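Posting here for the record, re: calcium ion.
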Amino acid sequence: MKRMGKTAIVLMLAAGLMAGQAAGVSAATEKEDKVITVAHRGASGYAPENTMAAFEQSVAMKADFLELDVQLSKDGRLVIIHDTTVDRTTDGTGTVRSLTYEELSQLDAGSFFSPAFQGEKIPTLEQVLDEYRGKIGILIEIKASYLYPGIEQKVADALSDRNLDKPNNGKVIIQSFETASVEKFHKLLPDIPVGILTSSANQLTDEALAQFSTYADYINPNLAYISEDLVNRVHALDMGIMAWTVRNAVYVQPLLDAGVDGIITDYPDYVPRHRG
Ligand code: G3P
Ligand code: CA
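Prediction output follows.
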């Protein structure tokens, strides 16, 4: 599944101009209107990350996608949590993979953020898919796959079971820092777009990008690496590019100016069209 090609986008824009629809619309506004706003770990600036409260906030703020991190419990359930231990974001201790789903489901995943969110739980991927498919796009990060053999198949099964594995549904994207995991998932469900997460310049060379483009639809770098040149090089290979993680509004305009396709942010309202 490849994103819409640059040629197609250019033709669409040209058609719009001929119809007079784009007359007077600045290039800056077009970029702002087209950019995909991704609520990072849900709208995690406003609610505890990777909880249903944060995902609900993503929808309320009209983000285009919510992002989540998926790992496996001791008994092989797909659970939504960022760190490989529960220590930072819950009232428990220990590694995610040493705890059963029953044990994980007892933890309070809200109080670390604010007492107002006491009692928020660690969701499962299935819960999130069932609650939010059709309401908002879902960007699934497969986290630390080296700890979880078989996680790609489990994620693929969760999608297939819900008929979310078909071409052009356009509303589920898989990403990971582990390139082998991304490639493995792509082979399982080739119609689901996949992205490479990176915070390494070595993965942004022309050679590396060309290799990724053999299977990936997106390159999603740390925002520190974004430049117009990088965006153009990624687009030339018919891939999209989404930047992370915006936690300060000052980063938004430079990213729009560089031409990124997506902005991954804890604060969806930092992207101007989502402001109240
Ligand atoms: O979606 C990008 C971002 O989630 C990658 O970093 O550590 O927040 O999972 P991290
Ligand atoms: Ca993530």
